[in-house]
C-alpha cells in the first residue's frame, strides 16, 4: 500500500503532461493490440495526442497560470513596509558534479534575488533560507552562500535545512521564531504563493506575500500562439502539479 505522502508524489509525477499522455497512449495500444479497430483504443489515442497538444499551446497554458497567480497579479509592488523577517523558499538546485559546483536552479535564483531585494529595502532583521535538498550540501546552504555574495551579512541569515515541502517550511519557521506577531515577507514563485501563504498564516498572522517569477503572460492571439512549445508544456505541467498540491493540502486540512 502506498502511504499518503507516496501517493501524493505519485500523483504529481503522473500529472506531468508527457507522462500522462504516454500512459493514455499505452492503454490505447493495449486495446488496439487485440483489436486494431477498437473504438476505445482509437478514442484513447486521439485523446492522448489532443491532451498533449492543448497543454503545449499558449492559450491553455496561460489560462492555467492565471488561475493560480491571479490573486497576485495586481499585488502592489514596492509594499516594503517594515518587515521583521524575509523568508525565501527553495525551488531546487543544480548539482553539476563535472563542474565541481552546486548552483541554485533558475527558479531558486529568481526567488532568492527577489528576496534579497525585499530584505535590503525593508530593513528586515533576518533573511531565512528554507529548503533541505539532497547530497552533501543542502539547498538552504547554497542559497545562503549566494545571498552572502549579494551582500547580505552572514549573521543576518538563518537556515531551515530540514524541510522538504511547503507544509514543513511553515512548521520549521514556527520553531525558529517564538514571537508569532512578527511581520514576515514571504518570497516564492507566484504560482506557489497561494499554498505557501495559507500554510505560513497558520502560525504567523502577519504574512505579506512577495511573489516572484510569474509564469502567466497574455500574448495577443495569433497563429503562433497555437503552435506547441516546450515552454508552454513546462508552464502547464508546473501549474497543474501545483493545483494537485493545493487540493491535497485542503483534503489533509
Strand arrangement across the biggest beta sheet? 5-4-1-6-7
- Termini separation comes to 22 Å
**Backbone shape:** elongated
Mean pLDDT: 86
Summarize the helix and strand pattern as letters.
HHHHEEEHEHEHEHEH
DSSP helical segment count:
9
Q: Unreliable stretches, pLDDT < 50, 5 or more residues?
A: none
Helix/strand/pairing category: alpha/beta
Query: What's the structural domain tally?
Result: 2
CATH architecture annotation of the largest domain = 3-Layer(aba) Sandwich
Most strands sheet: 5 strands, parallel
C-alpha Rg (nearest Å):
21 Å
Percentage of residues in strands? 5-15%
CATH class of the largest domain: Alpha Beta
CATH topology heading of the largest domain: Rossmann fold
**CATH superfamily membership of the largest domain, which one?**
HUPs
Description of the structure:
- This protein has helices spanning 4-14, 17-34, 39-54, 58-73, 106-122, 139-149, 166-176, 190-200, 230-252; strands at 85-89, 93-96, 101-104, 126-130, 157-160, 184-189, 207-212.
- The protein has 253 residues and is of the alpha/beta class.
- It folds into 2 domains: 4-70 and 227-252, no CATH class; 78-212, HUPs (Rossmann fold, 3-Layer(aba) Sandwich).
- The strands form 2 sheets. The chain has a 5-stranded parallel β-sheet with strand order 5-4-1-6-7.
- A hairpin with a 4-residue loop joins strand 2 (93-96) and strand 3 (101-104).
- Helix 7 (166-176) packs across helix 8 and helix 8 (190-200) runs parallel beside helix 9.
- The mean pLDDT is 86.
Amino acid at each position: 500500500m502506498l502511504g499518503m505522502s507516496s501517493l501524493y508524489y505519485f500523483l504529481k509525477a503522473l500529472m506531468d503532461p508527457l507522462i500522462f499522455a504516454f500512459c493514455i497512449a499505452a492503454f490505447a495500444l493495449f486495446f488496439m493490440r487485440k483489436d486494431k479497430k477498437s473504438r476505445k483504443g482509437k478514442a484513447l489515442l486521439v485523446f492522448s495526442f489532443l491532451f498533449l497538444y492543448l497543454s503545449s499551446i499558449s492559450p491553455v497554458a496561460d489560462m492555467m497560470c492565471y488561475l493560480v497567480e491571479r490573486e497576485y497579479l495586481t499585488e502592489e509592488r514596492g509594499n516594503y513596509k517594515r518587515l521583521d523577517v524575509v523568508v525565501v523558499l527553495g525551488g531546487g538546485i543544480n548539482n553539476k558534479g563535472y563542474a565541481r559546483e552546486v548552483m541554485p536552479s533558475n527558479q531558486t535564483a529568481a526567488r532568492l534575488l527577489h528576496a534579497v531585494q525585499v530584505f535590503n529595502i525593508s530593513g528586515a532583521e533576518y533573511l531565512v533560507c528554507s529548503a533541505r535538498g539532497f547530497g552533501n550540501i543542502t539547498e538552504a546552504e547554497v542559497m545562503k552562500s549566494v545571498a552572502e555574495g549579494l551582500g547580505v551579512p552572514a549573521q543576518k541569515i538563518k537556515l531551515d535545512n530540514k524541510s522538504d515541502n511547503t507544509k514543513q517550511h511553515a512548521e520549521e519557521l514556527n520553531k525558529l521564531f517564538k514571537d508569532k506577531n512578527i511581520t514576515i515577507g514571504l518570497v516564492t514563485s507566484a504560482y506557489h504563493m497561494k499554498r505557501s501563504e495559507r500554510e505560513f498564516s497558520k502560525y504567523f498572522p502577519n504574512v505579506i506575500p512577495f511573489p516572484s517569477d510569474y509564469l502567466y503572460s497574455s500574448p495577443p492571439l495569433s497563429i503562433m500562439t497555437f503552435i506547441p512549445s516546450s515552454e508552454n508544456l513546462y508552464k502547464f505541467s508546473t501549474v497543474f502539479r501545483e493545483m494537485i498540491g493545493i487540493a491535497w493540502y485542503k483534503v489533509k486540512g
